[in-house]
Fold:
Amino acid sequence: MTDAKLRNLLSSLTPIARELDALPAGRPAPDDSYVKLDTNENPFPLPTIVMRSAIAALERQYLYPENDNVSLREAAAAAYGMSADRVMAGNGSSELLSLVYRAFLAPGDSIAMMSPGFSFNRKLAMLQGAQLLEVPCDEHDSLPIDKLLFGPARHAKFILLANPNNPTGAFVPVAEIERLVARYDRLVVLDEAYIDFAPENGLHLLTRYSNLLVLRTFSKSYAAAGIRVGFAFGHPELIGRLRNIQNVFNMNVIGHAVGMSILAHRRAYDENHSYIKHERQRVSDALSHFGFAVTPSHANFLLARVPAGQDGRWWQSALERQKVLVAFFADDGMQDCIRVSIGTKEQMDAFLTAVRKLRYGADSAS
Ligand SMILES: *Cc1c(COP(=O)(O)O)cnc(C)c1O
Structure:
């Protein structure tokens, strides 16, 4: 194709995908010499019984997966105490989140999200030509309910709440979420990606309110990020609209089998979850000792404000030179923060050793 023809072709296409070029490019996975604490994975192997189900599924590789994930939806419905028409399964909860945007928004619509929040929502809103209203979080882990009900968000098609929130780790008591859902006429999308590290969850609200969708993922708390299993729960009318627009065979046979197996063996993760909560406290204490201000977290990561006068991006690069990867956010109010995932004890020791070295110099003792 000539350059002129290509240029004409590109300018004839809708500009939205081009605008997304402005977002940061992905990076190849770092090699195993890096301690990877930047994307909140759960670093432990699958329980043996779950792993066996994944391997068995490989023998059905020549078949398409089940259409509409019927048995996985039925298993999730049984596990969480509801009917299967209230469940949709997806290729990670980010697929379901993107279906929510596509199913419920037209260009010019608006939606509201707490800020700082999960940045993937910016991209989804932009793709839909929708306006994302970012409502600042309260200092004290609570919802600004009046601001949401009576501010610009009252015209939003839905309010998106991540609880615990990413990237802060802050947790809003479910009673507060219920107060919002009860008083709001529109939809609330409750993203519970980190809920297994928190004290309580909001799934039971679905029995009382039809203006609520709950999203769950097996990526963070069930160590299956690479396998891609997520769920949406809600009123059959809402779930039905999402299922109407789903891709054919949106999950693969391994995700399907692992999802079924995890649902049947959730207790096998109890130790994993209590380890992470315990380690989160140990790392938080150590970081405070090193002069960081750590936001109390109910997720498997910590948001830490770096010592006074220093810069989050500097810390991210300096840690990367020590082969430790953490997340940094360029947004207003976040530039003096880093977010660090809770990994294995060895990974967290490597992180803390690198922090100590950068803080006090190479030959400092404890
Ligand atoms: C990680 C994450 C997700 C998506 O997880 P999937 O791997 O796509 O299931 C959704 N919401 C939040 C807030 C997250 O941090």
